[in-house]
Amino acid sequence: MADFLTDVHTLRAKARQEIMNGPVTAAYGADLARVIELLNTALATEIVCTLRYRQHHFAAKGLNSEPVAQEFLEHSDEEQQHADRLAARIAQLGGTPDMDPARVAGRAHSEYVPATGLQQMIEENLVAERVAIASYTEMIDWLGTGDPTTTQVLKEILAREEEHAEDMLTFLESEG
Q1: In a domain, 120, yes or no
Q2: How far is CA 34 from CA 21, 129, 148, 157, in A?
Q3: What CATH number is given to the structural domain containing 156?
Q4: Which PANTHER family does its entry note (predicted)?
Q5: Which residue would you say has higher pLDDT here, 37 or 18?
Q6: pLDDT score for 164
Q7: Structural domain of residue 121, as residue ranges?
Q8: Distance separating alpha carbons of residues 57 and 41, to the nearest angstrom
């Protein structure tokens, strides 16, 4: 057995001693309060994105709007799934997911822009996806190896946000 590993008796004793900390053990290597704060910011961003995509889905009009509107709806559903994953992780870490509408818009990295034309909707959603990509990349870099589970959740969401941005760029190029 390697010298750097904690012996099993010590592991068991610590687990019992700190039982109310749930999944957060002494091995947790990140600033827990800051992680929860960042996750609540990401949660707010996803909520705003869900609402913006949903509004754009219903407001999209015009000859070529149907496939774009359908994509907006799919993205809205996926953004809601991201919000749910973030809220679950916050709760798992012992925090409280903050979904208070009075605070969500001010905390979100992306903006809620109820665009009027299809091209503007696509552009606003592409901007928001780029903001999310930059934000998640920074969070992942900041976490490093301090919280591998949160890092994995953020990486999976980041991959979907990159796909969303690619979808919006494809629509934008076909509109132009």
Answers
A1: yes
A2: 17, 23, 15, 19
A3: 1.20.1260.10
A4: BACTERIOFERRITIN, DNA PROTECTION DURING STARVATION PROTEIN
A5: 37
A6: 97
A7: 32-175
A8: 24
